[in-house]
């Protein structure tokens, strides 16, 4: 695997945050993609009007939800990304901290909780995922929705290494190397930057856990949530679930 892997938070704080929006395809394009996703899913305020975005980052989901009329609390462990969110949308409340520290974001009576991007894959293991899903059920008001998306790392074979071109422009190239193990994926983000007439390389490694669609569907149902929609394809998993009892 990746013996030099650093904690996920350190990777974001020291390496990824400053280029995250660019790496992900651009800020505006991500906002527009999530606007379309929420419209197609029928995600609009219906009861308390409160939404929580777990692993909000720089606001790719939180900002479209606020535009749709929700009062959004954005939770993330990465201060630089939250600063970018506040700069772009100062009306959104932010909470800096680990999403597994439940008292940080509990007690708000949300009708919607979203957990998008690779937030779940950043957790320590399956037990942490299970605990988070159960906490989301506890926090949602009856009839509330839980929206989950993440990359699907399950197709990779154990021992396989893949290098993916993520994005490039005239002065920067971003690559991602994935090293597959049984329960996790070693991730190395690699950036080549053109400065002063030469190309310079920087890299940082961390780990993500591998989570199957079947596991998520089972644990959501065990937590008490009804699955309304789910899909897995083109390297992504998406699930919309609903709390149907108090």
Automatic annotation (TrEMBL):
Residues 52-144 form the Methyltransferase domain. One of its GO terms (molecular function) is methyltransferase activity. CDD domains: AdoMet_MTases (cd02440). Pfam families: Methyltransf_25 (PF13649). It comes from the Archaea. Keywords: Methyltransferase, Transferase. GO terms for biological process: methylation. This is Methyltransferase family protein. It comes from Methanoregula formicica (strain DSM 22288 / NBRC 105244 / SMSP). The lineage of its organism: Archaea, Methanobacteriati, Methanobacteriota, Stenosarchaea group, Methanomicrobia.
């Amino acid at each position: 695997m990746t013996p030099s892997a650093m904690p996920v938070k350190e990777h974001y704080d020291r390496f990824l945050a400053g280029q995250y929006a660019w790496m992900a395809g651009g800020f505006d394009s991500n906002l527009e993609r999530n606007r379309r996703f929420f419209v197609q899913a029928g995600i609009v305020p219906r009861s308390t009007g409160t939404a929580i975005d777990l692993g909000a980052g720089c606001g790719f989901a939180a900002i479209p939800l606020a535009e749709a009329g929700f009062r959004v609390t954005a939770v993330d462990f990465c201060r630089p990304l939250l600063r970018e969110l506040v700069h772009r949308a100062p009306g959104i409340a932010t909470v800096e901290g680990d999403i597994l520290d439940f008292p940080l974001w509990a007690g708000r009576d949300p009708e919607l909780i979203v957990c998008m991007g690779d937030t779940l894959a950043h957790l320590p293991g399956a037990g942490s995922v299970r605990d988070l899903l159960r906490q989301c059920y506890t926090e949602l008001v009856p009839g509330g929705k839980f929206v989950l998306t993440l990359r699907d790392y399950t197709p990779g074979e154990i021992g396989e290494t893949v290098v993916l071109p993520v994005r490039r422009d005239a002065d920067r190239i971003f690559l991602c190397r994935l090293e597959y193990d049984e329960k996790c994926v070693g991730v190395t983000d690699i950036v080549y930057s053109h400065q002063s007439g030469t190309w310079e390389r920087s890299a940082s490694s961390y780990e993500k856990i591998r989570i199957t669609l079947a596991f998520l569907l089972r644990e959501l149902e065990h937590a008490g949530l009804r699955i309304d929609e789910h899909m897995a394809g083109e390297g992504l998993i998406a699930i919309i679930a609903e709390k149907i009892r108090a």
